[in-house]
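Quick one:
INPUT:
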């Protein structure tokens, strides 16, 4: 069994099949990374997912910075995830959950995958949280901002985010609404 961090195909399905519309050129670039969107394997290395995210923002949002592109793809991931069988079940109750309960439960959503993402939600005010990401894998905070931003929109909440980076694998997201 490999100790390399892996990500399940549902993550690829959510973003690349349901969240964005892949161009022929993007599909070709992803095949060069070992990902055939028409025949997904059960799982891929996490590093492959990150490379495909970066390929996607470069192909679909070439006028955006890396940070803006990754954030947009985080939002697209959530929109796509809601269109998967698993995602539909997960987000069905989001509108009534409210932002605080959503953020407190966010680590449970990450357990749906075997990616080793670790986050601790800490409520720091009535309408403010700090999400502490301490990972064994490189995760871009901008992608996670997009994920949380879109997740909060499902609770009918618009939030402001500030990123505090500690290392390539460690960062905090400060969220207020």
């Amino acid at each position: 069994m490999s100790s390399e961090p892996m990500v399940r195909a549902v993550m690829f399905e959510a973003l690349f099949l349901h969240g964005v519309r892949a161009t022929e050129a993007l599909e070709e670039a992803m095949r060069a990374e070992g990902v055939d969107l028409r025949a997904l394997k059960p799982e891929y290395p996490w590093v492959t997912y990150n490379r495909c995210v970066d390929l996607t923002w470069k192909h679909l949002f070439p006028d955006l910075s890396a940070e803006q592109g990754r954030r947009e793809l985080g939002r697209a991931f959530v929109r796509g995830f809601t269109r998967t069988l698993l995602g539909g079940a997960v987000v069905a109750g989001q509108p009534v959950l409210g932002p605080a309960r959503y953020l407190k439960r966010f680590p449970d959503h990450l357990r749906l995958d075997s990616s080793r993402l670790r986050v601790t939600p800490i409520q720091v005010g009535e309408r403010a949280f700090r999400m502490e990401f301490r990972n064994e894998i490189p995760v871009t905070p901008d992608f996670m901002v997009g994920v949380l931003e879109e997740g909060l929109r499902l609770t009918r909440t618009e939030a402001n985010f500030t990123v505090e980076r500690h290392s390539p694998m460690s960062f905090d997201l400060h969220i207020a609404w």
